[in-house]
Amino acid sequence: MSLLDLKIQPLTSDHLSALLELDQTCFNGLWTLEGYRRELESPNSCLLGLFCPVVDYGLLGMGCFWSILEEAHITILAVHPQYQHQGLGQALLYSLLRAASDRGLERATLEVRASNQGAISLYQKFGFKTAGRRRGYYKDNDEDALVLWLSELQEPKFLHRLDQWQNMVSDRLQQSFWQFIDP
Predict the structure, then answer these.
(1) pLDDT tens-digit profile of 52-99?
(2) E strands, the chain, in order
(3) Which residues, in sequence order, are bridge partners of residue 49?
(4) Contacts (Cβ under 8 Å, ≥6 apart) of 96
């Protein structure tokens, strides 16, 4: 079987309807059209999309972080449910961390539902550590959020880890018959 092509690229206003559709599928409407429009227009936001040209959905995943001082605050990481557990989340997280490092940011942080073991495992695989807990953070069910933290994004050892992660992500994608192409 041949590999399916994947590309990760910055999202634009042309992708707004696909963003809203993926948001609705993954989060039941976490952000609004205006919210995504603001993210796309903000110089402090990095909003990436994961695409496959031959898949009906087109936009298979998305990731976003805000640049706040020296920190990349990851706000969204989502993969369409039909394509989860195939390494696409790893590809998006790797790409966000690479973009944060390329921007000169020194740390990455995020909140994740305390019950979301799949996401927590993914973040831990990339070196995130639990820094705290926000009680009742998620208003839909009053669930706690874990605050995860990754530092030293500008250190040589982190840059070396990025290279290792690139190989890990590529290998994982190939196991699920995906391959990266240049945008």
Answers:
(1) 888 766 899 999 999 999 999 999 999 999 999 999 999 999 999 999
(2) 4-10, 45-51, 59-68, 71-79, 107-113, 129-138, 143-150, 178-180
(3) 9, 62
(4) 46, 48, 63, 64, 65, 72, 74, 77, 108
The yes-or-no answer on residue 123 being catalytic is yes
pTM recorded for the entire structure: 0.93
CA terminus-to-terminus distance, the chain: 23
| DSSP reduced 3-state for 130 | strand
Q: Which of 36, 83, 94, 123 is catalytic?
A: 123
Spot the catalytic one: 39, 71, 94, 111.
Answer: 111
Q: Does domain 4-176 have CATH number 3.40.630.30?
A: yes
110 with 73: CB under 8 angstroms? yes
Determine the residue type at 138: Y
Could you read off the pLDDT of 3-32 as tens digits, one per residue?
888 999 999 999 999 999 999 999 988 899
